């Protein structure tokens, strides 16, 4: 009786070891502040595995040595990790200025189409009334979180395409850091952009500029990234 038990124990230990050795875990924080970041999109470029950080900034993803992990979040510079070992990682995301984000729209955002690149996410996210797994399994829940993330990203891309630096500075006289501050403070929502045309957007920018001028000087600046 002991022999089969020992074989089973050895097999379970081997399976646990293999899983542990092919999983990278870690935490994503905001550079300079050390704030833990939730809903950071993490993907393995080689095996198509993907995940999001949880509310405490933690992530866990299946990968292998030699693979590259990409970390991305709206408003932050994407970061990469070349996997050389499976120790816990700490990823620091750097906040993106509006100017840098404007430059990267055509270079990065338009090349990523979640529906085409990750159709399996949308399949796993479907809920079937007679399938408890589609409601409660971790895989299904993760897929729904990813689907929600992809939707938010698509909406933010659309705002970026309309509310551009060149367009805003063609309407109001702000330039440089002041323009970046203004665009961050008065960035329109996706719903507003979707339901308003060019003239309406111009009116919104002009009205927002008047509100900006009425703000005290200390309210027109953004908090420093470093504490």
From TrEMBL:
Pfam families: CarbopepD_reg_2 (PF13715). Residues 1-20 form the signal peptide. It comes from Mucilaginibacter rubeus. Keywords: Carboxypeptidase, Hydrolase, Protease, Signal. The keyword Transmembrane does not apply. This is Carboxypeptidase-like regulatory domain-containing protein. SUPFAM superfamilies: Carboxypeptidase regulatory domain-like. One of its GO terms (molecular function) is carboxypeptidase activity. Gene3D superfamilies: Carboxypeptidase-like, regulatory domain.
């Amino acid at each position: 009786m002991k022999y089969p038990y020992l074989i089973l124990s050895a097999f379970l230990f081997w399976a646990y070891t293999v899983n542990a050795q092919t999983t990278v875990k870690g935490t994503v924080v905001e550079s300079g502040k050390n704030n833990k970041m939730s809903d950071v999109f993490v993907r393995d470029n080689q095996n198509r595995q993907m995940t999001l950080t949880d509310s405490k900034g933690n992530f866990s993803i299946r990968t292998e040595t030699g693979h590259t992990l990409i970390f991305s979040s709206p408003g932050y510079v994407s970061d990469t990790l070349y996997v050389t070992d499976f120790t816990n990682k700490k990823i620091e995301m750097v906040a993106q200025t509006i100017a840098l984000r404007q430059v990267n729209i055509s270079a990065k955002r338009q090349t990523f189409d979640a529906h085409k690149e990750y159709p399996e996410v949308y399949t796993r996210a479907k809920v079937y009334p007679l399938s408890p797994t589609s409601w409660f399994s971790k895989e299904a829940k993760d897929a729904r979180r990813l689907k929600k993330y992809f939707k938010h990203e698509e909406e933010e891309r659309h705002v970026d395409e309309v509310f551009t630096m060149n367009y805003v500075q063609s309407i109001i006289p702000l330039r440089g850091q002041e323009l970046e501050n203004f665009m961050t403070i008065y960035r329109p929502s996706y719903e507003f952009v979707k339901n308003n045309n060019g003239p309406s957007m111009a009116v919104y920018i002009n009205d927002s500029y008047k509100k900006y001028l009425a703000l005290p000087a200390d309210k027109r600046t953004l908090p420093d990234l470093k504490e």
